[in-house]
Amino acid sequence: MNATAAAAVPHRAAVDIQQHIVEIVSDSGEGAQRCGQSLGSIAARMGNGVWTTEIIPAEIQPPARSIAGASGNRIRLGSTSVTNGGDETDLVVAFNEQVLLGRVREGELKPGCVILLESMWREHRDAGIRAAYAETYERLVNDGFRVIEIPMERECLKIVSDARKGKNMWALGMLCCIYSLDVALGCEQVAVALKKKSAKVIEANQKLLQAGFAWAEENLDFKYRIPAIKATEPQVVVNGNTALALGVLASGMEICAMYPITPATSVSHYLSDVFERVGGLVHQAEDEIAAAAFTIGASYAGKCAVTVTSGPGYSLKQEAIGLAVMAEIPMVVINVQRGGPSTGQPTKVEQGDLLTVIYGSHGDAPKVVIAPSGIEDCFYSVITARKIAETFNMVVVVLSDSSLATAQTQFPRPQFDEEWQAPPVDQSPVPAGAKPYDWDEFTGLFQRMVPGQPGGMHTITGLAHDRNSRVAYDPATNEEGLRHRSLKLAALQQTLTTPAVFGGPEGDLLLVGWGSTRGAIEEAVTRLQAEGRSVSSLHLTFLQPMPSGIGEILRRFKHVVTIENNWSDRLSDDIINHDNRRYSALAWMLRGRYLVNVDCWSESRGRPIKPVDICNEVRTRLEKMRGTRA
Amino acid sequence: MTSNATSHLMRMFEEQHSLEDYQGGVPRWCTGCGDNAILTAVQRLCRDEDLRPEKTVFVSGIGCSSRFPHYMKTYGFHGVHGRALPIAQGIKLARPDLHVFVNTGDGDCCSIGAAHWIHAIRYNMNMTLMLHDNNIYGLTKKQASPTSPIGTKSNTTPRGSYLDAMNPLTVTLGVQNASFVAQAVDWIPDMLYDIISAAFHHKGFSFVRIIQRCPEFMPKAFDPWLNDPQRSLLLTHDDGVRPSPAIAKLYRNQEQHDPADIDRAREIASDAETIPVGILYRNPSIPCYEDIRLAGARRGPGMMRAGLEAEFDKFTIWPDGQQPAA
Fold it and tell me: For residue A353, what are the CA distances in angstroms to A20, A479, B71?
């Protein structure tokens, strides 16, 4: 602690808070991403819970100082583990006022939020820029934000000749001071973040960090402390896509075939870097269809493989997926959802593919669908997917989304389990008389024969076929195939456990979610319960098949509402009524399966659902319910 | 107890295969269909090379030609329309020990699967592709295909097809990494066999276009060539195939063509009047994708765990005092 600085601002003691959301935004290429990620890492190493989310412009090089060009990171810091991005932002560091304006317009900043704004634009040589800055500043102050102008550029130039390279580390130092983070740990993190750079560059950046810290110490009149309870077990800090890639490494699979698509590609980037070290490889195919077909070929030949894609790519793969279903070849498909339909919103969040992955591909094509509900789940779900795919000779879809893809948080470091490894390719002779599709009457399961097994020669086909894999069009054989392929889902369903209800086992309202919304929904439920409201939640990871016992849970609540990040018709539209309303995906499924009057509340705003919005919706509904009853 | 080598030798003696060992179901192709000639040549090849049926996979797409695997007594994969090649590539990369053949048609390969065809040439994976080209869609009952000559009357072009036919030979010869390009015709079975055999022995992606008659929907398509042997050009070379004296006597239009000469290969392929029969191009020095990709260490015991722990280390935050020494 700098004693002089403390003396200069004597009234300032760190205020203890439970959690805070901080954003850092800049033009693309100014390093706000790295600043934010480093802040998250430092806080995580201090023992804080963190959840970082990338703020990504749609273009690679958007014009400088543009509203749509905001690039950066949003970090939620907490005393204990953080499961979602939370509500609006409490504090933001902005390298120019235009990118900041983008965030304001998107409604991402909390009323009265602290804004730490680069002040160099006030005296810029371009009169237009000066005017734009002054005007925005005025408006933000009038709107009630606490805008603090910071001479970041000027301060950086005292240390380096080009402030563009390094301002992010100066800002990181400032944030370390604001959140009472250890400056030495900050310097260590700079070395980690810049490990590919020279020692000289690292040293300059560490100086910038210290300078930023000292400046804040001397000049800012506020400071926070988020008391951390440090974990006693090692934790890994990764985003959802890295967790998926680590899951592929841990699943025993050796081949990943893919085609580039946002926001799934970073799974393959990371895998391409490391997979070969464990004897695996990433094949970048000529298109999405080829990637799916390649995966099927590898799996057929005995090495269960995975293909990674997002919505548009998934649509293209569906015919091939149907082939894997029909020929009963194991296959893992990772779909990191984005906004749709069509090209939609490539970098934005949506849970729009649920019905597609469950019911998609023509004809009756039963597949398994697992939706990880958090970062840790991303890792384990791929391991589970490979096991199910091989045990049941089925296609297993792992349905993530772009909110998990780029969100980073910590979870306990996984303990390696020998069971994760794939069995060696069976090359043993096939017993005389064995049939390629020797379906078990009860479960539909059978032992697959793979090339290389003497005596097992047969031709698999996407045509209807009998137990000998011979093409057959007769009615009985067709139904026999359909029946056994469907029975496998039921057999898997029997092994699943009923998900636990979060909150009381019965009550006024049950919220049901799936996939990435778990953290936000459960946080909302916790807040609502603290208000004395009778609200619980249920979160589904297995969407197809659904575990038993769900219908009973739904029936124990007076009202059931799904919370989903996808489209549902609004009853507030004049033309929409209960006869023609299109429900959210999960609501459709729950209504159809359990004959319970499940309602839905959904958003399709291209961003994660915030706990505060769920809380507001629930309060309104509960008030209305009370009104109707009275 | 016998040594590994001895047991291998013993197995070799046991495994002298006959034609029957490769004959699967009874073909359901039409009488006179050129596919039958291809099937016979391939079964002969398997016997002569003594391919172990369990180590051999025939992959196909959809169409008359793609029924092929059903008629072989090896492993077979009858897939979806146009996608035989990426399926075959997945098989080969996962299991380079398998012999992989691809049977496809002019619709399957040159139309719906054209993207995969182009890229298969680039990958140059060690497999043999047989393009059963009858210039028409047969299984869907007579629609013009990309290789139908302009003016072909079909159910979708009742007043004649509109576009010039695509030439699969010039297309293949135009793609980077083309390593084996040949053409055969169903009506010269001996050379058909020799060409497929040469394709099998080439290490790389062997592309064999086989002109094949469809007696049902295109009965007269190749009559000009059948009626006038001079319109076929036999390509002969010490490094290529050599027609038997009987064939050489009938088809007198011959050329000594060095398969290493790609410029001449392209000229020969471009001549629409003449059907070349033989090996147009062969370049054994182009690396195979599977050899490039599988050059690193294959997965061994302990490798997965070691790699995974190393990756976890990159992302781990250790509690105080627990970080293992580097």
Answer: 32, 28, 40
The neighbour count for residue A428, using CB atoms within 10 Å, is 10
CATH (domain of A273)? 3.40.50.970
- Decide which of A225, A249, A280 is a domain's last residue: A225
| Closest residue of chain A to B76, computed from CA coordinates | A459
Assess whether A84 and A118 both reside in one domain.
Answer: yes
CATH of the domain at A13: 3.40.920.10
Q: What are phi and psi of A357, to 5 degrees?
A: -75, -25
Task: Look at residues B26, B98, B77 and name the one whose alpha carbon lies nearest to residue A469.
Answer: B77
Tens of pLDDT, residues A197-230:
999 999 999 999 999 999 999 999 999 999 998 8
DSSP state of A471: B
- HSE-CB at A291 with a 13 A cutoff on CA atoms is 28
Residue type, A535: V
Q: Which residue among A276, A298, A461 places its CB closest to the CB of B78?
A: A461
Q: Which domain holds residue A295?
A: 236-415
Domain residue ranges in chain B = 13-301
Q: What is the ipTM of this complex?
A: 0.95
Residue B144 is encoded by which pair of tokens? Answer: 């013009």
Q: How far apart are CA A73 and CA A27, in angstroms?
A: 12
CA angle B78, A299, B20 (to 5 degrees): 45
A400 φ, ψ (degrees, to nearest 5): -100, -170
> Which of B77, B305, B309, B320 to probe the A interface (max A CBs under 10 A)?
B77
| B13-301 carries CATH number 3.40.50.970 | yes
User: How does pLDDT run across A405-445, given as a tens digit for each residue?
Assistant: 999 999 999 999 999 999 999 999 999 999 999 999 999 99
